Amino acid sequence: MSEHTYTNKLIHEKSPYLFQHAHNPVDWYPWGSEAFEKARSEDKMLFVSIGYATCHWCHVMERESFEDPDLAEYLNNHFVPVKVDREERPDVDKIHMDALHALGQQGGWPLNMFVTPEGKPVTGGTYFPPRPMYGRKSFGELLRTLVSVWDNERDKIYTTADQISSHLQQKAVLNDTEHPELTWQAEEQAVAQFRSSFDTQYGGFSHQPQNKFPPSMGLMLLLRHHHRTGDSFSLEMVEKTLKKMYAGGIYDQLGGGLSRYSTDYKWLVPHFEKMLYDNALFVWALIETFQITKNPVYETAVRDVLSYIEKIMKSSNGAFFSAEDADSEGVEGKFYLWSKAEVMEILGIESGELACTYWDIRENGNFEGSSIPNRPRSDQDVAKDFRITVEELQDQLRIARKKLMAVRTKRIRPLLDNKVLTSWNALMISAFARAARVFGDSSFEKTAERAAAFIFKNLKDESGRLLRRWCDGEARYPAYLCDYAQMTTACLDLYETTYDPVWFRKGCELSNEIKRLFRNENGPFYDTGIDGEVLLTRNAEGYDGVEPSGNSSVTNVFLRLNSYGLESEFFEDAQRVFRCFSPMFNQAGVSFCSMLSGLHFSLSGPKEVVISGRRGDAETEALLSEVRREFHPNTVTAFLEDGDNKLTEEIIPLASGRPMLNGRATAYVCQNQACRLPVHKVEELRELLDSSYFQN
């Protein structure tokens, strides 16, 4: 006999989010034809509820409403309830989120929409309370109102549904009808927007009225602006933000890893869930800032984040999990919080006072009576207060951290969303590959290669098409543009780390599939493939949300491929995407930072570098170190191992016919396929990389 009173159709789903709801009294259906056929046959609207496994307010609404038998009975009798994991089906999520925005509402999750049997959104919202509060109707009141309108004034519902659908279809895809000039103005305008909203005291930007999100893609654009113009304030904004985030409560001071966002302007009180993509992009920004500044704090931060990923977010087969929940034992943040008395008991008076001072752990707490460790003061200031050296402080803190972690590991850890998503894994593969390249760490390289090998082995169907999600042995859902484009980026990052041409070839194969599956001759690339489910709209997004948009990643990777000497179509496709979204750059450039980084690469006239030599040879390694460790964002690099170049020269046109000269390691630097004389010395290579446009 089952221990559960209720079981619905989600019991067969692999998604942790859907499976969480498998024993609700709500008769949930997964998204699919069965739910829509039931709605048509029973003449009901669908209630489409979208969320993800580590969503705090999704948990709240489940406890308050979806586990209420009376409310569930009413919902089952009058609607067809459908649950969607937004991370598995971003296409379904986007349509319904766009519909909510069309209704003039702010988006978020859970996203709850009411939909006609024909699949047209009517109305909805995010979190609905069980009783009227926050200026919102209760969930039950909303259901009864909609049933009354459906039964008595159905024409109003269909009029609204048709209007929303028409609006969504008109805005789904931009066309390249005009040809605006692409200049540095878009970047300058975005930088100006960042300047105007920069928090000079705590870093970050006040685009959001209350919360602060990690702005990693924006920081990387600011680094490029600094590199191009020498503007010191662009670098200052980046450094202030990264340091404050890394020292704040948004960063797990004991276990490592970045939370989703901060609920205050000081980066102190986080929304505690940890997402794979946030941590990957944070590492990207930290690495680039290290390349410019050489400040070891950024390398320390990179290693700390990646250590967390290796310990907690990496599966035994090498792939990366999606997220850790905000809640533990039903309480947000419980796993991460400490009282001062608890710390003092664990560490003793002397070490406890030092630890509490350093991590700002207070008697009265700073989050519901308990404290979130963060570092509002510098190591130097705290060491001075305790009359010890910084080295002694750090030694004591290492011991304290070890003792506190021993206690924390005995707590009930938040839920781990163990599904493997292709694009999110690709972002983290790039993070490990870039860290390996810049810091010379072979263990990072092995981690990146192992994760990529998992994707290519397990996230493909019988035809070889890339898939979106793997979980508990099941791979499912055709991959989206973002999956293909980010995985292509990861392959190029792996090539520039390992110089194994197999990774470059895999990137080329994926890029050709992008053109086959997602191509739009008159506009940006579609988010879904030609073989995907037919939905209300087929979108082509450029906005960079929590990760780079598919079109942003396409522009970046296609321009890199073109710089390696591959066909001009890659360049032309990237330029078409830029033109389609350029009207939005000046208005909302801060929302297109990854795409603007691609435009930066294009306008800069990227340098093409080939180094020919023998790995391990001092002169070769010195040349490689220049292109690996230094900040040269507008370059591509190929390497030819002396005497073993056949495959590389076959698949990378740039590398063809670039031998070692006079038996010495040799660097070739080109721009727009026009090359300067080859050089042997690091100083000569650096001068060529830093120089302005070549004179042909």
Structural features, described:
The protein is of the alpha+beta class and 696 residues long. The chain folds into 4 domains: 9-171, Glutaredoxin; 187-328 and 417-603, Glycosyltransferase (Alpha/alpha barrel), CATH 1.50.10; 334-413, no CATH class; 607-690, Glutaredoxin (3-Layer(aba) Sandwich). It is 50% helix and 11% strand. It is built from 26 helices and 19 strands. Strands 1-3-2-4-5 form a 5-stranded mixed beta sheet. A hairpin with a 2-residue loop joins strand 10 (327-328) and strand 11. Helix 19 packs parallel to helix 21 (550-563). It is globular, with a radius of gyration of 26 Å. The model has no long low-confidence stretch (mean pLDDT 95).
Features:
26 helices; 696 residues; alpha+beta; Glycosyltransferase; Glutaredoxin; 19 strands; 4 domains
What does the secondary structure layout of this molecule look like, with pairings?
Blueprint: H1 16-20, E1 29-30, H2 33-42, E2 45-51, H3 56-66, H4 69-78, E3 79-85, H5 90-102, E4 111-115, E5 121-125, H6 139-152, H7 154-171, H8 185-197, H9 216-229, H10 232-247, E6 261-262, E7 270-271, E8 274-275, H11 276-293, H12 296-313, E9 323-324, E10 327-328, E11 331-332, H13 340-347, H14 349-358, H15 379-385, H16 390-408, E12 416-417, E13 420-421, H17 422-439, H18 442-458, E14 467-471, E15 474-478, H19 481-498, H20 501-518, H21 550-563, H22 568-588, H23 593-603, E16 607-613, H24 618-629, E17 635-641, H25 646-651, E18 666-671, E19 674-675, H26 682-690
Parallel strand pairs: 1-3, 2-3, 16-17
Antiparallel strand pairs: 2-4, 4-5, 6-7, 8-9, 9-12, 10-11, 13-14, 14-15, 16-18, 18-19
Helix pairs in contact: 5-7, 6-7, 8-9, 8-22, 9-10, 9-11, 9-23, 11-12, 11-17, 13-14, 14-16, 15-16, 17-18, 17-19, 18-19, 19-20, 19-21, 21-22, 21-23
